[in-house]
Amino acid sequence: MLSSNDLSFMRDSLELLLPDTCHILSLTRTSDNAGGWTEAWGTATTSVSCRLDTITGSYNKLDGAIQTYNKLIFSLPYDAVITEDNQIYYNSTNYQVTSVNDGSWLATKRAEVQKV
Questions:
Q1: Which residues, in sequence order, are CB contacts of 78 under 8 Å at separation 6+?
Q2: In this structure, what is the dihedral angle of CA atoms 8, 76, 73, 9, given to the nearest 10 degrees?
Q3: How many helices (H) and strands (E) does the chain have?
Q4: Spatial distance between the Cα atoms of 94 and 88, rounded to a whole number of angstroms
Q5: Are 51 and 22 in contact, with CB atoms under 8 Å apart?
Q6: C-beta of residue 47 within 8 angstroms of C-beta of residue 65
Q7: For an engineered disulfide with 113, which of 28, 79, 95, 108 has Cβ 3.0 to 4.6 Å away?
Q8: What residue segments make up the domains of the chain, in order of their start?
Q9: What's phi and psi for 32, nearest 5 deg?
């Protein structure tokens, strides 16, 4: 079992591996007074430490064909507030969050994303 000091040390050490910053965006809907709305993405959290990784691989389909895949995953501090309802703005590009994993020991958060 990890002590709170050990966990704090792990979290601090892992943040050193997050060399970049990004912004976490949230969606706001504003009534257009005609029964609809307009949508706008605004910054919910600025300058969040992050790292973007690309994971590539392949798998066999039922018919024997090999399919490749690419996953984009942001690593974020363990206490970053982010859900599948958010987007991440990084390096002049928006990414839609498709899933969030709190990771092992709650040391980091990992968000799988798709480029918007």
A1: 11, 14, 102, 103, 106, 107, 108, 109
A2: -20
A3: 1, 6
A4: 6
A5: no
A6: no
A7: 95
A8: 4-115
A9: -100, 10
Q: What is the mean pLDDT of the chain?
A: 89
> Six-digit token pair at 73?
């995953």
The CATH class of the 4-115 domain is mainly beta
Task: Name residue 96's amino acid.
Answer: Q
| Angle, CA of 10, 13 and 14, to the nearest 5° | 85
For the question of whether the overall pTM of this predicted structure is more than 0.90, the answer is no
Q: How far apart are CA 66 and CA 59, in angstroms?
A: 6
Residue 13's identity, in one-letter code, is S
Average pLDDT value for residue range 24-40: 92
The whole-number average pLDDT for the span 20-26 is 97
pLDDT at 103: 63
Residue with token string 């709170």: 4
Q: Provide the sign of the torsion angle of the four alpha carbons 22, 102, 55, 99, taken in this order.
A: negative
Asked if residues 22 and 48 have their Cβ atoms less than 8 Å apart, the reply is: yes
User: Within 13 Å and on the Cβ side, how many CA atoms surround 115?
Assistant: 9
